[in-house]
Amino acid sequence: MSPAITAAAVQQLRARTGVGIVAVKQALDEAQGNEEKAIELLRKRGLAQAVKKADREQSEGAIFIAETSGSSATAQKAALVVLKCETDFVGRSDAFIALGQQLASSLVKDGAAKAKALADAKLPEAIQKLGENIGVGETLEVSAPVVASYVHSNRKIGVIIGLAEGGDAGKAKDVAMHAAAMNPPYLHPDDVPAESIAKEKEIWKEQMKNPSTGSGQAPKPPEILEKIMLGKERKFREENALMKQPFVKDTSMTVEKYLGGAKVIAYQRVAI
């Protein structure tokens, strides 16, 4: 009769091999709890070879987003997964893209725990098949009455927009595309951190202390300088806030005006 395989034994073998929990448990069962025999089984199956690749840098990858449709009673959802690899060649392969989309779909439909279990089961096989170190990077989920997303054609940029009830899904999609192109780090001007403003103010102060040579301009009085600083701060905040940026498809209006008053309750932009 095989000895009971403890959770501690499974975790220890996972730490040694880097193989998923399901494959590790199966190997320990077949090896009747003998760790070295289990490692041998994993090596014969090609799974433990993943360990040799585990320390190689994952400098490439792709972004995947999946959505679920909501109803009047339930919110819409979107989930984003960054799947990392070593080379752009693998990142553009059909097998890699299929795996990334599968993981994103699992995350949005089944939740984080089941998506992680799926990744643990699928990654060793993908590493063996594609011959590179592959791993899951950033993951996130968004839930809102109206959700729209956009993944750029190179899969290096992904955006999710969530609107309050009554928002327009088509406009939310347009705003997601805008955010992908214009890279606003914040949603509203007030979201810009005080530290960022402080750093910019130091630069502005130095610029105003040292006007261009030969300009012939007299130094401005402190009250004028203060007004200039306030104007620069307002412009800096608006340039870095999604809602105040000129909308790329019609720069005569801001994103906020284009949305027609719809409230953005979620904004996520990820780039690799």
Write out key terms for the chains shown.
272 residues, single chain, three-stranded antiparallel β-sheet, 3 domains, Tetrahydropterin Synthase, Chain A, Helicase, Ruva Protein, domain 3, alpha+beta, 8 strands
Major sheet summary line: 3 strands, antiparallel
Poorly predicted spans? none
What is the count of helical runs? 11
* CATH architecture annotation name of the largest domain: 2-Layer Sandwich
Strand order of the largest sheet: 1-2-3
CATH class of the largest domain: Alpha Beta
Provide the number of structural domains. 3
Number of strands: 8
User: What spatial form do the alpha-carbon principal axes imply?
Assistant: elongated
H/E order of the elements? HHHHEEHHHEEEHHHEEHE
How far apart the termini lie comes to 50 Å
* CATH topology value of the largest domain: Tetrahydropterin Synthase, Chain A
Strand share of the residues? Answer: 15-25%
- The class by helix and strand makeup works out as alpha+beta
> What average pLDDT do the residues reach?
88
CATH homologous superfamily grouping of the largest domain = Elongation factor Ts, dimerisation domain
Helix content: 40-55%
